[in-house]
Every structure is written in C-alpha cells, then in structure tokens.
Structure prediction request, 74 residues.
Amino acid sequence: MDSLVFAMVRQVAASWYALALMQGCGGQQATETGLMQASLFLSDLGIVDESAPYLDGARDAMRTAEGLGFGRVH
Prediction:
C-alpha cells in the first residue's frame, strides 16, 4: 500500500507541475503548485505528520518531468 501512495503522490505532483507550465507559470511556481497539490492529496489520505518522504518523491518526480520536457509548449 505504501508504494501505491508513493506512486500516486508522484503522479499528482508531476501532473500539476506540467499543467502549471502549460498555463504559462514559471518553473518555481509550477514546482510550488505540484507540491501544494501533492500535500493536499496526502492530507486527504490523512498523511500529514509523515508526509516528508512522500514530498521528497514528489520533488524527484517533478525533476524527472522537467528533464523529459513535460509541460513545455512547442
């Protein structure tokens, strides 16, 4: 179950990151948006005090998305 939560948090963060970039946000703002949405998702699951490892995974996912060019408008 824990690995499923990690995967879902990474997906939420990367998706919102890419959406923010496509809406014209800068990289820092897109990262903040992804982290905010990941935090809200974790809160909905009741994971607040132990959220740090999940948010670290979210940051990794957004760095990967950035490296792959997600959210870039061509």
